[in-house]
Write a structure and sequence with these properties.
The chain contains eleven helices and 18 strands. It is α/β, with parallel strands linked by helices. The strands form two sheets. It has an eleven-stranded mixed β-sheet with strand order 1-8-2-3-7-4-6-5-9-10-11, with helices on both faces. It has a seven-stranded mixed β-sheet with strand order 14-13-15-12-16-17-18, sandwiched between helices. Bound molecules: adenosine monophosphate and magnesium ion.
Length: 360
């Protein structure tokens, strides 16, 4: 299949591109589009046959439900049997924005979207082109991230093309996504709302509005808990090279460990902040991904940097952890999964991994 490409112009209405892309959606095809979080791979969310094409293009397991994207508040009504106060409060305070609510679904939502669950996940993105494109389609748009399953999500149109060229009808290119990690998913079906996936809206922002908010215990990687969002159980966001994530006080040891590995002749990727990058000399910076000093920048560049490591393929990647405050919770969730839960900690002066002394 030939994949059409539309370059969107910032601060312009891009109506023709949205209309042409929407024609493909109406014909039951898939089109990738930008949002403020990551690029989505969209299809008509009420057309089960179209939705199946998303799963095929991504190689996504069928038991992993999709998020339905809407372009205005009222669009949610037909998708649900009713909103409780928590769902209403989230809509009022955080939508449109980088948040998804899980609610009880109505009969019009196909099983292909909800993967047979009695609930549906709904998001109203803040990105203007996403809204205009969805409006032009005239239906809710089912859209997971526009990557091959298991790879880091795409945050620019080139990364979408790398995974999807020839497999989908088109890509709307709106440049880089500014948030860079996916939406926060909140289950609102129980009395206490629960974060199933941390994302663009933070835990702190949610508790301020909703009071008590739980976090799915499975997010900590404990195999005794099954994640409530089916997609969270899969290996995800992982580059091909092995990743070690240095957490807590160990985060300060990344530069020294990188030097040791370099001395052994390894091609070492280092994903770190400016202060750690400063500790490396110019010829030690071959595969350096330096995100500066601002965690919002790390969030927006993380997937690009992880995908870039699939192009350079270092022998090992040493990643520096950050605090879990604010957007840090979403960043650390993605980094832990990218590392396959290979977490390095500093205990009594020694670097440990899974209780063993760490050595690159
Ligand atoms: P993606 O669109 O690739 O960012 O993934 C969507 C995420 O939303 C996956 O982790 C899904 O498992 C999760 N999700 C979608 N629908 C539901 C639902 N009804 N209940 C719980 N999680 C959901
Ligand atoms: Mg995804």
């Amino acid at each position: 299949m030939k994949t059409c490409y539309w370059k969107l112009v910032e601060n312009s209405d891009n109506a023709l591109a949205h209309k042409e892309a929407a024609e493909f959606i109406k014909a039951g095809e898939c089109v990738a589009f930008p949002t403020e979080t990551v690029y989505g791979l969209g299809a008509d969310g009420l057309n089960a046959e179209a939705v199946k094409k998303i799963f095929e293009a991504k190689g996504r397991p069928n038991d992993n439900p999709l998020i339905l994207h809407i372009s205005k508040k009222e669009d949610i009504d037909q998708l649900t049997t009713g909103l409780n106060n928590n769902a209403k409060a989230i809509m009022e305070h955080f939508m449109p924005g980088p948040i998804t609510i899980v609610i009880n679904k109505s009969d019009i939502v196909p099983d292909a979207v909800s993967a047979g669950l009695p609930t549906v996940a709904v998001r109203w993105p803040a990105h203007k082109d996403a809204q205009d494109f969805i409006r032009a389609c005239g239906c809710p748009i089912a859209a997971p991230s526009a990557n091959i399953s298991g790879r880091p999500s795409p945050t620019n149109a080139q990364d979408v093309m790398e995974d999807m060229n020839g497999k989908i009808a088109g890509v709307l290119d709106g440049g880089s996504c500014n948030i860079g990690v996916e939406s926060t998913i909140v289950d609102t079906t129980e009395a206490v709302p629960m974060i199933l996936r941390p994302g663009g809206i933070t835990y702190e922002q949610l508790t301020e509005v909703l009071g008590v908010v739980e976090i799915d215990p499975a997010l900590h990687g404990d195999p005794n808990f099954k994640p409530k969002a089916p997609g969270m159980k899969y290996r995800h966001y992982a580059p091909k090279s092995p990743v070690y994530l240095f957490e807590g006080d160990a985060a300060n040891c990344v530069a020294d460990e990188a030097k040791k590995a370099l001395e052994k002749g390894m091609r070492v990727g280092v994903l770190c902040d400016e202060a750690t990058a400063q500790k490396l000399s110019e010829n030690e910076k071959l595969f350096l991904a330096n995100w500066g000093s601002n965690r919002e920048t790390l969030a927006s560049e993380l997937y690009y940097m992880l995908r870039d490591y699939d192009r350079t393929m270092p022998d090992v990647i040493l990643a520096q952890g950050v605090s879990e405050e604010g957007i840090g919770l979403a960043i650390m969730n993605r980094m832990r999964k990218a590392a396959g839960f290979q977490i390095v900690t500093l205990e009594k002066g020694s670097l440990l991994i899974n209780g063993q002394v760490f050595q690159v």
